[in-house]
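Notes from hallway chat w/ T.B., transcribed later so I don't forget. T.B. wanted the structure written out for a chain they're using in a teaching module, and asked if we could keep both sequence and structure tokens in one place. Agreed to drop them here.
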Amino acid sequence: MEKLEVSFKNNIEFNTEQCYAPLVERLNEYKKNPSVGFHIPGHTRGSAILPQFKNVIGMDALLCDTTDEFDNLGTLHPATGAIKEAMDVASICYNSKRTFFITSGSTISNLALAFGVISPEDEIIVARNSHRSVLTGTILTGSKPYWLMPKKLEDWAIYGAIQPSDLAEKLKNNKNVKFVWVTNPTYEGVVSNIKEIAEICHFYKVPLIVDEAHGSLWNFHEELPTTALQLGADAVVHSLHKTGGALTQASMLHLGKNSLLDENKIEHALKLLHTTSPSILLLASLDAARASLSSNEGKKLIQNAIDNAKFFREQASNIAGVSVLGEGSRVNFDVTKIFLKVRGLTGKRLESVLELDFNIEVESASDEGVLILSNIGNTRAEFEYLLLAIKQIARNNYPDLSHLENVKFMPLTEPNVVMTPREAYFSQKERIKKEDAIGRISAEVVALCPPGISVLLPGEIITEEHIPYLSEYTEIDVIKE
């Protein structure tokens, strides 16, 4: 099929008077009134940048590329000036006790939570489908994790929701647990009952941390799931760069209004872990994303994303051989995350056909299907084109040799752990062929992105079940015998 050029035209115009963004305003003043600078960054407002690169990103971006401390923009640690005001406005918007701006992705948010509130040898409960940054936090702190297994959606080869009863049982049987850490929604958009999970945690007087990285729109629209900040979570992580319109790596960390966590400890951890040269472009993009999403125009953009997703879900579900997660099932989900599969094709094969034959790039692919995001910037025309492509693929006989290979992409294994992640990571290691590693103890983190869920944890016994997930590896680090 001939590749189509799909035009992007967003017809929503913003009323800038309603989109108060203090850091964006101060950055605009900085751009218009440059000082004579003898400080970093050394390219000096773009004058010493490779011309080809300057042409790619534009002079405006280079004029605004600076860090905190200069030109009265404020500082991040400690928060001062326009940066502090932007974070305070965000905190009011999210109804949080405290909101922190992060320029190193939600990875740093998770690491700061671990480093700030968990002590060595603390017992914690961690959802098995957590991002590898949470696992890294257990290595840094020397904590002892108990793994909480979400429900498996076997027909889709992905994790489903966390069962509150499973959490209650773990807390009942492990009296010394200090924290509970869950991911909601899942990467594919499956939603857990956070209200009940929070109530269980607080019954046992245990703080609840929710990695809500993929739910950054929830605070701004009633048709989307309710954010954990309104359901009793003590800390919530949002990747505004993923779906909220901020620049890549821009994230927010919130403390719940009645959080049991010590905000000073978390702030100290951020000072230790965060970059000392935070990008003003990234910080301003968080301010801009918050202002945009909380405006009337932003709500219209979110409504468009929801409407486009509903349109595509309904139409795609009626195509013979096509299935869409959540349609006609009892799974609770974020409607803007569309997990789709086509009979006879693995997700990886479907992804490659979409890209090579139709010039369409999806978010990711796994064993059974592909993940499609209905973003606030997508148009109905783009979804109509995607629908046309799915119809053509479903009608045609695309061969899929990957069905014959023993390769998997989404780990659904329950870990058999015999050492804490920290003990294993810092033990003496040796590198051996993966085929010889069965029965040995893993000494490294194996987690492919996306979605960043660990295949193997340090301290976990390697089994034959792991081998199909290690197709990208020929060797692996194990504990030396």
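Follow-up for T.B.: The first strand starts at residue 98 and ends at 102. Might be a good example for the class.
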